[in-house]
Amino acid sequence: MALLAKAPKGTHDILPSEVRKWQYVEDTAMDLAEIYGFQEIRTPNFEDINLFVRSVGDTSDVVQKEMYEFEDKGGRHLALKPEGTAGAVRACLENGLLNETLPVRVCYNGRNYRYERPQSGRYREFNQFGVEMFGSAEPSADAEIIDLMNSILEHLQIDEYHLEINSIGCPQCRKAYHKALEEYYAAHKNELCKTCLDRLEKNPMRLLDCKEENCQKLAENAPKTLDYLCDECKSHFEKLQKYLDAMNIKYAVNPKIVRGLDYYTKTVFEFVCDKIGAQGTICGGGRYDGLVEQLGGKPTPAIGFAIGLERLIMLMESCNAEFPAPPECEIYIAAMGEKALDTAILLTHDLRKRTFFAQTDTVGRSVKAQMKYADKIGAKYTLVLGDEEIEKGSAILKNMATGETSEISIGQDFVDDFYDTLVRDEERDHRFGHDDDDDECDCGYCHHEH
Ligand code: ATP
Ligand code: MG
């Protein structure tokens, strides 16, 4: 049968077998961000297009080529959000969050949209976890958020990455830098791509981030931002490095990083991994001291980062990082006949109320087929109910791993009795397979002389 429709190009489904990985990564990032003082914010998936044009910048690739823009039925010019910072700033301003005690720290986990050429690690709809910190101009804030990102990667057991940092200065030092860039590129005008020729007049720094091969080659020898920093920016960058050293966070200064979005000032950084192919940048971030004011707020320094979750999970897989195992079905109750099924449904309901992972038949299978199914889903225990069991008020509970059976009442005490069996069996597992190194286990056998 031909499918009526397929997933749009550049999108991907996250299937139940994969979704646990995502939840684990998202929860880890969110939990860590929380202990650094960040609180989650949720903003719309689409915004007034001007928000992005003004913040990301009208000469950036994102605005020039990648934006999903549309007019709604009310004639509003909107865009699906290509990144998270602009929306977070807008929401904080609109809701007065930045009038409260500073710094304000927010984090988010959201979907972004960019009309790009899909390839490994590059999608048209992708997920980012990001943090934004408002109101700290100090380099200690830069160090803090880099530390957070580092900590997320460590917790996820990723070790094959490196951190690259740079400073692209403030509007003050950028004047001289732009001049130097214009002079450098003036001699190479005929080697530039069409878009870059246009950018040269409006925003020469964008040329350094162009993905065209020729432009990238030219960028290699272009003047470096670090040589044009004012004293303030220089000292900020030096202090950041001092803090990173103190926290024992390894990094390299890469004067070629300028980042693709216009709002950055001073510190910019990337976490990069060579293991996942061409799309190796898993996280990008930096300071954006001018953006809040540019969007209509009071001058407020800010810094943030965003991690691409698709790339992060790809990287975890290639590092063989561990993901938590899915929950196991604790008991399958098979039923033969209508009466038995009534009881099975009730017992399953009672078990679930007490948070046991329990299943019973919902598709009218024969008992034999039900047992096969129980085996397939890896149920730890099974219980078979028929007329005879209902009459007696008890049934045989079977431990599927050991084959051991025991009689259990299917009356009021069933859930408690099942719990006791489960715990007893778990203890016995530890007794025979006890683990002297398991500090966590308090089963009464691990960690004890036998
Ligand atoms: P790239 O240079 O790879 O295009 P970028 O500089 O455009 O990245 P940012 O805007 O800084 O990326 O976004 C931060 C992170 O979001 C990236 O490091 C990456 O992990 C992820 N990301 C960006 N664009 C995509 C995409 N199209 N598909 C999947 N992940 C993406
Ligand atoms: Mg990009």
How is this structure best described in words?
The chain is α+β, with helices and mostly antiparallel strands. The chain has helices at residues 16-35, 49-56, 61-66, 85-94, 139-155, 171-186, 194-202, 213-220, 231-246, 291-294, 309-318, 338-353, 367-376, 387-392, 414-432, and strands at 39-40, 46-48, 69-71, 77-80, 104-113, 125-134, 162-167, 252-253, 265-272, 281-287, 302-308, 331-335, 358-360, 381-385, 394-399, 405-409. α1 runs antiparallel to α5 and α5 runs parallel beside α9. It is elongated and about 95 Å long. The mean pLDDT is 93. The structure holds adenosine-5'-triphosphate and magnesium ion (MG). The site of magnesium ion has 2 residues, from loops. Residues 83, 114, 116, 121-123, 126, 128, 260-261, 279, 281-284, 306, 308, 310-311 line the site of adenosine-5'-triphosphate (ATP).
Name the descriptors.
eight-stranded mixed beta sheet; elongated; alpha+beta; single chain; five-stranded mixed beta sheet; 16 strands; binds magnesium ion; 450 residues; binds adenosine-5'-triphosphate
